[in-house]
Each structure stands twice: as structure tokens, then as C-alpha cells.
């Protein structure tokens, strides 16, 4: 079922939270949605890889990278992994790299910016907790909706 974030805002004004418009769009899918899976990491993407290696089942991986722009948490290889394993999208409160490659992958990606430096790969981080950024609080199983107009968060699936 198709949607636009403006239509969802109009139809469900008391049920959506609009994220602050701080993200750049990457990935070949400009519109994506799904249940939220959360990660909290800092300048280390090993846990991101571990999660993206699992079946995404249409979920959106929301990564709180602490807003760091010193290194990239997602690049071309991880984006392809997300697509291959059925993730709808990835939202990164941090940086990505391989922008030209990301834009060829049929998955939705939002991030603060790009940087060419790779991250550590030690496996530090936390999965499945509450994370907060861009004026929103994300919890697993919430629903995220993204398109060219912005990103929304809701407690339930508004498209069901």
C-alpha cells in the first residue's frame, strides 16, 4: 500500500511524530516503511552488520550513532546486505559512505551526512533498547514511515 508522509500527517495528526529534518536521503528506494529495530553504537559498525545479516522481514533498522560524523556506520556492502536480507530501510544518526553505491541499492537509507573513513569493528553497542535523536524516541516495534517529505514515527502500523 502506497503512502505519503503528508497524507499520514493529515489522516493521523494525533498518532504520528515528525522527526526533525536533519537527514539526507540515500538508497534507490525513496519511500519506505516498517517496524522499527533499534541499535545504539558509537563509531563501530560490527553490530550493524550482525543485525543486517538476519532476516529483515520489512523492518527498518534505526541506528543511534551518537550523531558522530567522524566515521561511517554504513557503506555499500552493508546496504546490499540489508537489501538481500529483506530490510526496508536504515536510518542512521551518524554518517555513511560509498554514496554513489548506496544510491544504486534498492533500500531506503537516511543519514546525517557522508564521510569516507570506516568505523571500528569491535562489536560494541546495544540492540533493542530505546534510542532518542532528531526530536523522537524510538522503541522496537514502533512504525517508521519515510519519503521525500520527511520521516514519521507511530506507535502502530497506520497502513494496516
CATH class term: Alpha Beta
Mean pLDDT: 97
Portion in beta strands: 35-45%
Structural class: alpha/beta
Our count of helices gives 4
Tell me the major beta sheet: 10 strands, mixed
CATH superfamily membership: Ribonuclease E inhibitor RraA/RraA-like
3D shape: globular
**CATH overall fold name:** Glucose Oxidase, domain 1
Radius of gyration: 14 Å
Helix content: 10-25%
Task: Return residue spans where pLDDT drops below 50 for at least 5 consecutive residues.
Answer: none
N-to-C CA distance: 9 Å
Which architecture name does CATH use? 3-Layer(bba) Sandwich
- Helix-strand sequence: HEEEHEEHEHEEEEEE
Number of domains: 1
Q: How many strands in all?
A: 12
Can you walk through the features of this model?
The chain has 160 residues and is an alpha/beta fold. Helix content is 17%, strand content 35%. The strands form 2 sheets. Strands 1, 2, 3, 4, 5, 6, 7, 8, 11 and 12 form a 10-stranded mixed beta sheet that branches. The chain has a two-stranded antiparallel ribbon with strand order 9-10. It is globular and about 45 Å long.
Amino acid at each position: 500500500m502506497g503512502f505519503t508522509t503528508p497524507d499520514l500527517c493529515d489522516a493521523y495528526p494525533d498518532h504520528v511524530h515528525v522527526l526533525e529534518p536533519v537527514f539526507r536521503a540515500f538508497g534507490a528506494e525513496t519511500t519506505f516503511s516498517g517496524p522499527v529495530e533499534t541499535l545504539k553504537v558509537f563509531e563501530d559498525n560490527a553490530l550493524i552488520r550482525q543485525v543486517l545479516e538476519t532476516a529483515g522481514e520489512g523492518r527498518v533498522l534505526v541506528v543511534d550513532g551518537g550523531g558522530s560524523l567522524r566515521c561511517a556506520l554504513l557503506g555499500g556492502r552493508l546496504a546490499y546486505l540489508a537489501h538481500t536480507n529483506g530490510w526496508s530501510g536504515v536510518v542512521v544518526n551518524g554518517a555513511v559512505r560509498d554514496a554513489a553505491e548506496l544510491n544504486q541499492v534498492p533500500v531506503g537509507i537516511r543519514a546525517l551526512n557522508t564521510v569516507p573513513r570506516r568505523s571500528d569493528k569491535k562489536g560494541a553497542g546495544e540492540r533493542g533498547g530505546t534510542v532518542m535523536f532528531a526530536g523522537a524516541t524510538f522503541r522496537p516495534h514502533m512504525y517508521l514511515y519515510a519519503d521525500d517529505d520527511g520521516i514519521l514515527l507511530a506507535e502502530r502500523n497506520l497502513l494496516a
